[in-house]
Predict the 3D structure of the following.
Amino acid sequence: MITLKGSEVSAKIKEQVQELAGSLEGTIPRLAIVRVGERPDDLSYERGAVKKMRAFGLEVQSCVFPQDIANEEFKERFREINDDPQIHGILVLRPLPRQICEKTIEEMICPDKDVDGISPVNIAKVFSGDPSGFAPCTAEAVVEVLKANDIEMAGKRAVIVGRSMVVGKPLAMLLMKENATVTVCHTRTKDLSGTCREGEILVAAAGRAKMINSDHVGPGAIVIDVGINVDENGKLCGDVDFDSIQEKASMATPVPGGVGAVTTAVLAKHLAQAAGYKQGGEHVSG
Amino acid sequence: MITLKGSEVSAKIKEQVQELAGSLEGTIPRLAIVRVGERPDDLSYERGAVKKMRAFGLEVQSCVFPQDIANEEFKERFREINDDPQIHGILVLRPLPRQICEKTIEEMICPDKDVDGISPVNIAKVFSGDPSGFAPCTAEAVVEVLKANDIEMAGKRAVIVGRSMVVGKPLAMLLMKENATVTVCHTRTKDLSGTCREGEILVAAAGRAKMINSDHVGPGAIVIDVGINVDENGKLCGDVDFDSIQEKASMATPVPGGVGAVTTAVLAKHLAQAAGYKQGGEHVSG
């Protein structure tokens, strides 16, 4: 089985980002990461994103608010970030605390700065296959892994485990646009392993540690693991039991070292595109 | 094989519409049908919709524009309809002629009057499973046929042939919300008949006369035919070769007399909901 490394995909995306950034006449794209509170998951994702932006030559600032900030106060502060012409892209770490109306933020965020695709405008574009919209970075990262490794999607059976708005649903649209025949499985799917085995491309995005094993993998399948979980020993692991699929899959992404690194690279690409869009350039994502 | 008649489903929806309309304190919901030119398909759909609205006790008016109306002029006239407080719902017959920017109209239409779900706001809601959005009537009609006939969707394999924004994609979301495991096939699907046979529920929405036959139907499958085509003898027919599947399918909708009648009933339901929403009532579609 071939291990598909995220770092190699990320390096390819870095070239695209540098080309995009090079056409910006001196403007350096700047990302605002909006974080409320100190959730370990958020801090870990933020660290990765900050490191990646800097490695790609982009600017990034963290906008941190106390866990108990009032809804109105947060909205006001978010509006300032949203309106700031120095900020080209905004990443909101979610879920936000309960007192904050996340839906309002999704509707408020300027679609042109919405580099992680949470605005209804971008959601509708991804749904309709309009390439001028930003897809959620993780969903797009899966397609980038496949493309960077010259894996044909057209005509292939693709099975996605998970129907979230962050991965499963938008990824179904992106893979459909690439002409794959897509099936989406979820907690209510009856014969999960059998359905997964139909996939020539199998994407695990359920958020459950090592739930996908050799039973779920058809012979020669390509397995993309979107999960980021912690196993019983406190170690980072994916949704796929990587060791168990070695004899079945033809290729697979590891965790860590797989899709995660590509997700932040896609975030960087979206940021560079957002900065170019601001300058009146063509706005094409994906 | 049992024939699933649209008229019976429509009669059930009529009861819901009358209940909704009864709570409107005398307001009679009014639909505006916007038509540009005299395309036979549009005229035929319009006739059906007008007849249905009247049969359900709702009001309807046709707003007809010449085939060669200029984009700016049409936009202006559309704005008047959109802003008219006497109009609760708007159905735009599409495709519009080439000179008119359909995308602008989709973005202009007031989401609360958008009873056929073309606005990005409603598209995003359908995608995210938010029941306050209007889904395209034809997609919702498929779910209504299944519900009215007590056909369980949860855990079932559902296969949709066609990935349009009018049926295939939104229907995938609606069926996923009902906990079906959904596969979407299209022109680039390699083993179309084999993939279709996996469906316990098979929905034909490809727009090609009689392309689905007994080869595509698994034993006991429920077949819903969304197609409206004209066959070689000039007769109305669906995407399914109805005669050929009699021995294979357990139930199927005919054409005519199937989904079409339910689509206009859903349109009426959306109109009554839109009128209720206007009055400050709860806005729940589906």
The longest strand of chain A covers residues 30-36. Chain A has two domains: 13-113, 137-259.
